[in-house]
């Protein structure tokens, strides 16, 4: 579903996305988001990809579609990722510079951890 917003067409899905600035996130909320191995996998994959090139469905995750959506929402609420819709795909960007500014070194530790096998 789309609507016109001052001359541009905006997806209702995109309009309903809420992005939290990392500066508004508590350390506990950041740690809670980073504590899940599935979310760490998403972050490692995003760190190795150019911004806006990974759609949610392209991640190899051992979870259902609904659980996948939950993990992306948690990462968005913790200020770790930004999402935007392009057609039927939801693309992702790791907000590393913004997150690093508020939590220096934290993301480096998470991304340096070897992926679970």
Keywords:
Arc Repressor Mutant, subunit A; alpha+beta; single chain; 43% helix; 6 helices; three-stranded antiparallel sheet; globular; 117 residues; two-stranded antiparallel sheet
Report on the structure:
This protein has 117 residues and is an alpha+beta fold. The chain has a single domain, classed as Orthogonal Bundle (Arc Repressor Mutant, subunit A), CATH 1.10.10. The protein contains 6 helices and 5 strands. A 3-stranded antiparallel sheet has the order 3-5-4. It has a two-stranded antiparallel sheet with strand order 1-2. β1 and β2 (8-11) form a beta hairpin. The N and C termini lie far apart (40 Å). Mean pLDDT is 89; it is low at 1-12.
């Amino acid at each position: 579903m789309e609507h016109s917003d001052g001359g541009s067409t905006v997806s209702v899905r995109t309009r309903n996305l809420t992005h939290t600035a990392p500066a508004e996130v508590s350390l506990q909320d950041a740690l809670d988001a980073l504590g899940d191995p599935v979310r760490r996998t998403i972050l490692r994959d995003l760190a190795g990809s150019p911004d806006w090139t990974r759609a949610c469905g392209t991640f190899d995750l051992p979870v259902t579609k609904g659980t996948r959506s939950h993990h992306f929402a948690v990462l968005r609420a913790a200020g770790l990722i930004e999402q935007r819709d392009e057609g039927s795909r939801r693309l992702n960007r790791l907000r590393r510079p913004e997150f690093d500014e508020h939590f220096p070194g934290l993301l480096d530790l998470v991304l340096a951890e070897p992926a679970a096998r």
